[in-house]
Amino acid sequence: MSDDLICVGAISGSYGVAGEARIKSFCADPYDIENYNPLTTEDGMRSFTLALIRPMKKGFVARITEVGTKEQADALKGTQLFARRDQLPTLPDDEFYYSDLTGLSVFDTGGVELGRVKSVQNHGAGDLLEVQLPGESTTVLVPFTQAIVPTVDLGAGRIVADPPEGLF
């Protein structure tokens, strides 16, 4: 994925028969997804202009200018929507975009490498760093809290973690 693009949402299928789509927003304020038009696919080959119509359970009903039928909306199910980084707000020092964390090296407080961030996940109870162990395919989920991850140094490409005993 390009460092210039951030995933801000996804199309989760059609809504009704008039070509409207269900949209899942990944923005801190879910309504902000509409402010980042036009949105693109990860490869930049397609772009979409959204107009949110109303909220619904787990997202929004939206009109996509480039979509006119239910079948077209259904065909886009699962499509991730990306905004250019320069469209997004600047974050405070203690907040990060998930894409900024992916790929960073993770070290314990003694300087021993624990692995590399494979992904950032959130299943509703807080953010988790999926850390892939060095030279292995095994991963460990590390709670992304100030107590367990006291230091994130984007410039150096490293995270310092103080994981609970036995996690690694």
CATH architecture of the largest domain: Beta Barrel
CATH fourth-tier homologous superfamily of the largest domain? RimM
Q: Please, how many helices?
A: 2
The proportion of residues forming helix, as a percent range, comes to under 10%
Report low-confidence residues grouped into runs of 5 or more. none
Topology-level CATH name of the largest domain: Elongation Factor Tu (Ef-tu), domain 3
Count the E strands.
Answer: 13
> End-to-end distance, in Å?
29 Å
- The global form is elongated
Structural class: mainly beta
Strand arrangement within the widest β-sheet reads 11-10-9-8-13-12
Strand content: 35-45%
Compressed to H and E, one letter per element, the order equals: EEEEEEHEHEEEEEE
Rg is 18 Å
Mean residue pLDDT:
92
Q: How would you describe the overall organization of this protein?
A:
The chain is mainly beta. The chain has two domains: 5-87, Elongation Factor Tu (Ef-tu), domain 3 (Beta Barrel); 98-161, SH3 type barrels (Roll), CATH 2.30.30. Helices cover 6% and strands 42% of the residues. It has two helices and 13 strands. It has helices at residues 70-75, 98-101; strands at 5-15, 20-25, 39-40, 47-48, 50-56, 59-64, 80-84, 105-108, 113-122, 127-132, 139-143, 151-153, 158-161. The strands form three sheets. Strands 11-10-9-8-13-12 form a six-stranded mixed β-sheet. A hairpin with a 4-residue loop joins strand 1 and strand 2. The chain is elongated, with a radius of gyration of 18 Å. The mean pLDDT is 92.
